[in-house]
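Thanks for the sequence, V.! I ran Cyclic di-GMP-binding protein right away. Repeating your input here for the record:
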Amino acid sequence: MKPSRRSLYLLPLAGVALLASVMTSSMAASATPSALPPAAPFTPNAIVQAALATPAPQDALAAKATAATMPTTANPGIVVPGGRRQGLTFAELGALDPLQLRGVEGQNGVEFSVRRDEVVTSAILHLVYSYSPALLPDLSQLNVLINGELAATLPLPREQAGMQVARDVSIDPRFITEFNHVNVELVGHYTRKCEDPAHSSLWASVSNHSSLELTYATLQSKPDLADLPRPFFDRRDVRRLELPFVLPGKPDIGTLEAAGAVASWFGANAGYRGALFPTQFDNAPLTGNAVVFATADNRPTGIALPEIAGPTLAIVDRQAPAQGKLLLVLGRNEAELKTAAEALSLGGNELAGSSVTITNVKSLAPRAPYDAPNWLPTDRPVHFGELAAERDLTVSGYSAGAVRVNLRVPPDLFMWHSKGAPIDLDYRYSVRPTADRSSLNISVNDGFVESLPIPARPTSMFDPARYLSSILPDGTAQAHKRVYIPPLLLTPRAQLRLHFFYDIPNTGECHGRMLENVVGTIDPNSVIDVSSFPHYIALPDLAAFANSGFPFTRMADLSETAVILPDDASASDYSLYLLEMGRMGASTGYPVLGVTVASAGDVEKFADKDLLVLGAPGHQPLLQKWANSMSFSGDGNATRFTVSDIVYKVEDWWQGGERGVSRPPARADLSLVSSESNAVVTAFQSPLRRGRSVVALIGAAGQSDANLASALLDSDVVPMIQGATDVIHGRSVTVTSNGNTYYVGHLSPLDYLRWALSSHPILLALSGVFAALVFGALFYRALRAVATRRLSE
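Predicted structure:
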């Protein structure tokens, strides 16, 4: 088998290890594997001026350090000599459902990538599939393709038809590059005579529990800031980012704020993967990459650092036996340390060399509310070309996927009594030869919105569209439609999906192969406009916090946010703080350069900010001080929850219970002592100033911190976080209270009047009577004046 030219360049990189792996791979076994019995499924940049500095020396021998108890990353792989081994299921690679193969040449697959500092030395595909009993074994087969190269051909014996089959396929690592496609192709036939290429018996299904087992060898690279965020984060890596942060034994406020900015930058890069930042004091982890923060007077004692001459960024190799690199963020004082962190967060693309000293950072203009780069702008119409690459707006084929456009909107858009967000949709489609069921289906996440029919070629001589064929000889046509996204579907994690569904023509038998010559395109000039909706929301609402970091992310740089840590903060408290900064960066796409870190004793100074409170009962004094303002309190031994009786109340017309104008009071207080490690998330109005919010993340050192961190990064758990107070235990979330409602934002006087009266029908009736009396009195006086004037004449 001859390898592709694009894959041969990997040979000199892998060296002897790669050649040995290739020589020992069994190509014959992959071509005709023996049948196995049925098996269960496997389980905007700142301008940074930098001067080259003397490279920093390597750190001293790493010693074992005390790390925060944080959850491990999902499927991190197993360390093996010279690299690691990792198994990834098709579901983890993005296949949410089994891969369906239809027709005589049906094909489907998944994509995977390889880190730049690694090379694959061995690859095994654990394939789990089933196929139609109607397929002829001597004419039908499954082909496994890697980047278009044939890796194996699997027979389809009749005795295993209709059953789940498991096969292992060895893949030549020479075919694997940085970005890869694994496709499974069905070559299916059900008769030796003329056949219908769209016959229902031509099918096979590949389980998304199929997995790809890869063994990697690590490639050595020269430390270079130009490669950032690599090797600390590589966008080709689908795993959750876990990057240790090394702080001095007693980090000061400036160090913590600098660490938060860097964590948010890595979190923004990690995006959907999520990011963990386990905190260690004084010493780096035994092996692997880490980020080190230090000032001249406050530095980790277990790491050898160069003399600090100003705001400095450097990458150094770790001394053997430790493997990996250290990213050094240094400054002579707190201000310079924050300057170095700002240069890294905003001007990372301008850096080069193993070490730089920052001479100047030109700050950007102050941020405005709701201007986060990841969020849909709410002050102007937005073209689809701004939200997705033009190549991603076109699909082709009968089994093509949907066009996907992310619509991350602020959670406080007030869309009451409206059709929803308007979209002026322009699209082009392949004209159908005859009328059929073809349509453009529009949905948001899993919520259906509208179906637009794709018409057939007009036959009436009076239809102007009939004469478009001379202008559009390729058989395409263009259409425009205004579509409204319902308010309930437009959430902070909304994704617009536009699926061109072309009905497969019934060609019948003896008509040859079916041509997949159908295309659908969403015009980049299509527009969505939410600028007409004001910002107004009822709080507390933990769903807004869990999904988008609101209300803190209202300012992308968190300039109106203060994080309140316990006076005796532990490594787990710092790890949770950094995790939250990473989540904020992932939500907004901007580093948290304006965040303020403080202790409980200084909280009065930040009454004009929204507060993020961290700490366990007994260590965070604000939990006792503000106990009357929230539906949770605890002293480290017993826990008290205020349970809402909202489920027991009949709708209160005067209080507007239907729409949450004023939530019902608490039904009871529940006190308990539990041996289990539960974490609590609660939100309430700031006792320091009306209109400001407090969100408290409460957990005890140990398993509860792990539960809290895991829940905040788990895409299945996050949608369950809502209300005002939630108890988290493992992957279980219990909403205990909806809290006391307060409102943030502004409405026009007319909108506010309409909204306020809509949930108070009796008040509305009284207002109508009062208005009638007022107008009646005015008309009465006016008519009396007219009558008096006539009588006097």
